[in-house]
Every structure is written in C-alpha cells, then in structure tokens.
Amino acid sequence: MLRAKKGFVFISTIMTLGAAAIMLFALATAVVSERFEEKGEIKARMELENAACFAAACAERWFRGYVAANADPHDYTLYAAPKNEAALAVPAALFDALKEKYKKYIFTAEASDLYYPPSFAQEAGKRRLPYIQPYADTNGDITRAYYITVKAQDKERPYVYYSLTRSMRATLKENGKIEISCVAVFDQ
To answer: Could you read off the pLDDT of 52-95 as tens digits, one per residue?
Structure first.
C-alpha cells in the first residue's frame, strides 16, 4: 500500500510540475508576443516619421525655388503691405514620388506667409500662425517669415499621423539675392 501512495505522489508531482511548466510557457509566449507587437508599433511609428521627414524635405526644396522665383523686392521693405493671400499655393504633385514609396500614407502641405492681411487673421488663429512683420537685421537686410507644415497620415487609420512645421526665413541681401534658411522645426 505504501508503494501505491508513493506512485500516486510521484504522478501527482509530475502532473503539477507539468501544469506549472505549461503555464510558464504560456506566460513566456504572451510576453514575447506582446514585445513583438510593441516592436511592430515602434517600427510603424518610425516609418511614419520617416515619411513625414521626407515630405518636409520635399516641401522645403519646393519652397526655396518658389520664393527665389517669385521674390519681389518691394515685398522686402519694412513698410510693405501684406500680400492679399497669405497661403502659398503648394503644387498637388509635390509628393508624387513619395506616394510611390509610401503607399499607405496621405501627404498634405500648407505654406504660409506670416506677414498676412487682417482678412487672414481668423484662419491664422486656427492654424496657430504667429504674425511676423518684415524686419531688418544689423546689416540692413530685410527678412520675411514663413511656415511650412507637412503632414503624413495613415490611410487606414486617419487618427495616426505625424506633422512637421518648418519656420523659414527669406532674407533679401544687399546684393539683391534672396537667402533662405530654416530657423526651427516643430513636430507633432
């Protein structure tokens, strides 16, 4: 009889240890699965941020060419009147090359002159655009301020997006050339 009890204890112990091992394996599998999901989300976020950075670079390149081609020396005086339209027309085809590479994102861009007319003030408030008049530096060069905001948004999940705003300055130098610089980048 004693031998039967030992066998029962032995089998019970084996079954208990086996159940514990299965539970530990299930827990480990859940933890590993969660880590892979987390890494997948991180990878997706990084891809979205990369897409937005490329879009911002495209928009900045377009902006530099646009300002150089459309610069009017009369706009670069301290007492120049604001232009009638503060929003710059961003070409629809600006992100065509990016749409080929990043098929799951929608790209949008807005460019604004920060020396805007009073009629644009309400829209500027919605977009959180500061009002910056042209100003002169110590050399007498006149500078105008602009914002370029680019957004990359997931097509399947529209609440997932990343946007970058570049604060740009266009300065009319004494030699008559326009120098463009990025003074800050804000992300969201």
So the answer is: 999 999 999 999 999 988 888 888 888 888 888 888 889 989 99
Beta partners for 113? 146
Give the position of tokens 């006149």. Answer: 142
**Contact between residue 60 and residue 166 where contact means Cβ atoms under 8 Å apart:** yes
Q: Is the dihedral of CA 60, 65, 70, 74 positive or negative?
A: positive
Are 129 and 120 in contact by the 8 Å Cβ rule? The answer is: no
pTM attached to this predicted model: 0.77
Cα 125 → chain centroid: 20
Q: 185 and 166 in contact (C-beta within 8 Å)?
A: yes
| Selection from 110, 117, 127 nearest residue 168 by Cα | 110
